[in-house]
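User: Predict the full complex structure for these chains.
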Amino acid sequence: MIRGRITGRVWSSKHIETLPGGALLEVEADGGATFIAFDPLGCDIGETVLVTQGSVAAAYFTKNKSPIDALIIGSIDEDG
Amino acid sequence: MIRGRITGRVWSSKHIETLPGGALLEVEADGGATFIAFDPLGCDIGETVLVTQGSVAAAYFTKNKSPIDALIIGSIDEDG
Amino acid sequence: MIRGRITGRVWSSKHIETLPGGALLEVEADGGATFIAFDPLGCDIGETVLVTQGSVAAAYFTKNKSPIDALIIGSIDEDG
Amino acid sequence: MIRGRITGRVWSSKHIETLPGGALLEVEADGGATFIAFDPLGCDIGETVLVTQGSVAAAYFTKNKSPIDALIIGSIDEDG
Amino acid sequence: MIRGRITGRVWSSKHIETLPGGALLEVEADGGATFIAFDPLGCDIGETVLVTQGSVAAAYFTKNKSPIDALIIGSIDEDG
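Assistant: Here is the predicted structure of the five-chain assembly.
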């Protein structure tokens, strides 16, 4: 998994139908690359999180096929 | 997902049979890398979009097996 | 997908049994990285092509399980 | 697989339900990139390990769908 | 696929049960990155090989679920 820090949020009014409702957060990974991840946990900007990628991320959504390839799976404890 | 900006369009007259009809757009990702994504949304050059990759992208095409590994899943709102 | 230019061809006499017969072409991607892709289209050196990667590439081979993780899916039109 | 050295451990109290219990270790890969991998082997900081990634990592967890996309599959022998 | 040169071998006495028996070789890819791949062909150090990655590599192992995400699928002919 990638560890990253939440740096923003994006909204998409025009999207494909299978995009699940919920927060799309901007994450800056260790190393500096930036990507967008789906957040099922209600994280805040500045929080350090754990992100899983690829088909593993999409498999979290069990009801419908989801186009999500980056998923926040946990918030990293500050003392961790 | 990757956030990128649409910078062009490509056409392919000679292609495998399972390539779905539709727009193949050139996307410049955050960080500068360039790749080609399938666009089911009718996006324009200059638009900032959200792209999913890998088998998650191919799974969007439910009727036939598709060779698409990069799919535009949303246009990012300008104020977002 | 990745856009790249065909820069060579490789042969492999010693290979696993499930490697499909056909051309293995060297592709230089936008950005300069080089990799090897399976070509079902009969492309030539110098041609600019569209390459899909990962399990999406392997899924093209429907009769047998294939170890191909990079597949040329189209040749990009010169005016495109 | 990636070869890396274990450089730390992270904890996540706030996580999705499907995150399996067990150690989440920080791994520094050959080349310097850092990521987080699940450790089913009880490895220590400083140990050199072999890490598999993507859906291959998630498939290790057979009872439940797991969101793990990086898994330590072995510790590399020091004389190896 | 990635083309690389075999630069070494690693051993792992402590590993998960599903790791298949066989050679784990160090491969230096075109570009300089180093990774570890499973070798079903009996290749030697210095040999130039073709490596497939991800779930495509794991699918080679048909009897049991395998944690292998990098597989040598062929040795590249020297005149190739």
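Chain C has one helix and six strands.
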